[in-house]
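Exercise 7.
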Amino acid sequence: MTGVAVVAGGGEHTGPAIALRLAAGGFDVALLGSEFTSADKTVRRVEEYGRQCITVRAELTDARSVAAAFGRVRTALSSPAVLVTCVGPEPLPDGLPEDESADERRYTAVRRALRPAFVCCQAGAGQLLHHRWGRIIVVAEPADAGENTWRTTQPVLDGLIGFTRSAALELARSGTTVNLVAPADRAVDSRAPAHRAAGDDSAGSYADGVAHVTEFLVDERAVGITGQAIRVAAARADVPLLRER
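Solution. The predicted structure, written as tokens, is:
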């Protein structure tokens, strides 16, 4: 499978790991985000696979910004066939009082975490239609430990599951699959670096595991898999994660 893949968000580990795995599989890659902490290294490593890699700045919660970014991707590379969006709630301080103000902060954090998945899918779906097939993968980032973690991560996970199922049904006739990759029930250290080569099956971080699953989901053999929440675990167990009720 070859073509253009967009990786939106993903922080320091998950996004780069996915980009490298897609490049190893023959994809040119566009990295979308407001910050690129390790972009230069990722670009160089993608180019080592003989593929192109560009960075495009975009505010992933802003529909106009993301639409413009997809336009730049199309001009520089081509219309993407794969979209991977990495999302997760922003950390909230522990010890928030149980009042309306705290509830509003949590609601805002959940809404902001969910919006990139909707905005990027909305902007990317039209691009994927050019190919009459496509892959949309939403990746839930693990959250750091904290007493307020479950109050934001659980609603985010529930929202992503519902969004994935709805989008999968809506896009099924276009040949586009939509799936969610989320942390498994057991804890995984999201901060473990995805430092191994893209083809190394012994890799153990959450980012490595997500990269493996992404590689499978973009393959033609995964055409019948859509609307699913796929759980990924890794070797270490230090951080409490999202849990589905």
